[in-house]
Amino acid sequence: MTKIFSERLTEALKNCKLTQKEIARQLNISESNLTNWKNGANLPSVDILYKLCLLLKESSDYLLGLEDETGAKIYE
Q1: pLDDT digit string (tens) for 2-30?
Q2: Cα–Cα distance between 17 and 20 in angstroms, integer?
């Protein structure tokens, strides 16, 4: 799950109009937290994940690998 999350987060950040600095500021976290999530070192808390999804306009299920790009659920 961490690998899927880091890959999808990295892609979502590329597509976002906000900079990582702006996202970190709005989430009240350090930029190094974002970097760690992108590198797969750890995952955000549920509260931060919720806010991150709102900022990136992505679903948590997609970022976590529970659905594909079309929104279809993946149960493996």
Answers
A1: 899 999 999 999 999 999 999 999 999 99
A2: 10
